[in-house]
Amino acid sequence: MLVAAAVWVVALSPVFATRTVVVRGTSLLTADQVTTAAAVPSGVPLVRQDTAASAARVRTLAPVRDVAVSRSWPDTIALQITERTPVVVFPVNGTYLLVDAEGQAYAQVAAAPADVLQAGGRADDSAVTSAVGRTMATLPASVRSQVRDVRADSPAAVTLELDKGRTVVWGGPEDPQLKGQVLDVLLKQVGGAKVYDVSAPAFPTTR
User: Fold this and answer.
1) In this protein, which residues make up the domain named POTRA (predicted)?
2) Whole domain around residue 40: which residue ranges?
3) Does residue 15 share a domain with residue 79?
4) Does the predicted model carry a pTM greater than 0.90?
């Protein structure tokens, strides 16, 4: 009898009904945007909330990389948001388009984030922004620290400008790890070159 009563209190009674949704971890998104997307039904006992469904709905928001949904007794659902982090930004009509390591363009903001490289090229083409984001994320840290500019007018024509007036012809998004490794070696072994072409990483050239 006591067990049955306890089950009823937790699963069916209004004692542990959902009354509050708490959002943590956002900077680009507002709490209202997240709670609206989550669509957590009020009044439903916490134990009966479909937290997986709420999480899936929140993940449809472009700035969200991940979300953890938890129950906080007696009456609260907590949404812990992990937002995407930009690896490059594209200037767009006085604003800045943020692109993450997965090549996802996920937000436009009024001010460029500090210490994030600004890119040139077709910001209106998602294939271009994706190629640039993935390229920057793939570069070895030793190479990335030397990049001063990146540009792409098509997904197959990514170009990096390094310090000391050096140019890297990266090409398209294929074989990014191999390109990064080859470029790292070339920069160390052929330090006097001005152009490093790794668009075909099996046959790189310098001049």
Assistant:
1) 16-84
2) 2-83
3) yes
4) no
